[in-house]
Here is the input.
Amino acid sequence: STNPPTLTDTPTFTQTPTPTPTVTNTPTEVVYNKSDLNLDRHVNTFDLFILALDWHRVAEKEIGNFLLKIETEEDLESITVEGSGRFDVVREGKYWAPATDDPDLLPNMFQNVNLYPFHPEFFTSVFPERFAGQDTLALILRDSPRDYFAGAIFEFRTVDGGTVYGFDSVADYLDTSELLTQEEVAQLYDILSQNFQLRPFAYAPVHPLAVEVASNWEDASFPVYLPGATIEKTYEALTVGTNYGRVRLLTVPELAEANANGTISWQDILVLDVTPFDIEGVQAAVITGSPQGELSHVALRTARRGTPNAFIANPHEVFAPYENQLIRLTLDENEYSIDPNVTLQQAQAWWDENRPSVPNPLPPNLEYTEFDNVLDMNISDSSDLVGKFGGKVAGLARMYSFLPAENQIPAFGIPFHYYHEFMTANTLTIREGEDFVTVTFQEYLESLLEDPVFQGDPEYRASRLEGFRNIIENRSVVDPNLVTALISRIEQVYGSTSTMVRFRSSSNSEDALIFNGAGLYDSTSVCPEDTLDGDELGPSHCFSGQDDERTIERALRKVWASLWNFRAFEEREYYQIPQDEAAMAILVSLAFPDEASNGVAFTGDPIAGSDAGYVINVQIGDFSTVQPDPGILPELDILKVENGQVTEINRSRQSTLLPEGEFVLSDEQLHRLGATMAIVDASMPIDLEGHTRDEVLFDMEFKFTQSGDMIFKQIRPFLRSNFQPVIPKLNNIRSDIDQNGLVDSRDLHLFLGDRGDVLEEETDF
Here is the structure.
């Protein structure tokens, strides 16, 4: 049980004399005219009165989504929530402001966090034609390219009963060079103080790094409000509940590294030194060593997922006795309890009851041996098709059954039979007690699945799976007859053994409507001539720019091994998909080492689930559109399509790799792309699995070649956000799930990142 916090060090508030902004409130003043707001395309969305002059009052009274000015306490209360996390926070909300003088950027806005607690969902929902399908966090976290400032606004109650209003700004706190400089804060203060008219108004950083930087500023041209150094508050639950899990003590940089390596498990209780900006995926529970606030991304996401979450003072010290142990953690409103005296059987029973399940995958057909061309496949029997060749091959075969020939590439499938043959023919030696025994790969895998330590310890599980993949890729034998047959088939289909092709994963646990498995498995390029030359010396015979050889044997091992990627295993396990029913087939298609552009296209907004139009993310060459390097953003175009034709192109964002005013795709290419997507949207066969057609989007991977050909190389269905599978709530959890029983689609991409990774996107090498 915890006591009310006591103040042991008074917060500091420094006020440097600054000119007070001149504010006129005459009824005829136009704060922003309609052209400034660029709302021409949003009138229907917002139900705005075009003749209204006072836009921020229209926003409050007619929309409720945002305010352009905050003039009174009533204004502030209408778009904020009661504060938490810090003793002095009375209310908190969020803002968005342009970081440059680009006239195309939206103006400073104060979003209604009662409707849209996240910055990204506010803009993708309220301004879909501008931000649909876009990772808006990429626009604010790093200085290059930072289009907008974003952060929180606060009402503080000081120790003497006075009131201070303030703001902070988010940044990539893992890189201290990304923290806002004194000059940038001054720029932001000038913008916000014109529209936030309650006084006194100050810069009030929250993150410890930002507080440390601000405390060293001298002669700032703006007021600064800093929190007290020691606040005697030891516990606050953001989402109450109970769960079992294994304790992991991490710093925020270590968390980022673990996320990047894919080693965070849904069985982990994450105990963090401070509050990170965000946490991807699903965990058993989250504990932070700094207060969070109800509008922090961590607090919002854990509440939506139903994940127990709390601030506990000095958490590494508290949980150190239980590090790497399985515990039962209970977070109540006023106290928490840790029970280390639990068994794996108790934990497993709890997990089975309180995590979601999806239909089991179709069983693989282990007898079928033919390398069928996708154009020759029987698409009328879905179970037979997926059972032979997996989800990716089946999706392409269905799309190519009606897609114009000029948008296709030759492709064929390698059925499940050969994966099973490989797993039962290769052996390894393991220790059983005092003895060494030889078992097949399949038998070894079965022994892992039955091992209680493997079942209950994510770190042990990750280590064993990594070792198993290493054995598959480096200490196994591929049937020479299979290699010879594939060389012959590739030469038959593509006309040469010096043609670079692509071996792409096609498991029976991907590309389904309920479980899409995006990005879980590996694909790789293949040069048959590299196998035929009889050596392992590069460069590749198919592409001189490839330093190492790309043999058929290497590719088969790599794709088959990826079925046991830790991320793939964890996502299947979380959704209670039987691991012993998973299998891997392969799609073979042409590679494009010199593509002009590549992209991912959706027949709707994959983030907000809205109908803003077709959403196109595209980049030059083979630069990634889904997981770009820091500072690199793809072009984003929104297409309105009527009667199968593009009627409007909205250039929402330019590629950061191109000069100002240049685009990856021309208007003509976008018209072609949109018209072809309309054909797919209208004609694509789909297993609705109990849903209606209007609940389903399609996402597609496409490329434009140097000669201008437009190629579609992958498709998968995508369930609209309001129809995603239910994640059952845990006992006593206070969250959005309590209200509607549904999880946000952005929280379903569990081990890939919370948005953007909805399509497996890859380079050809």
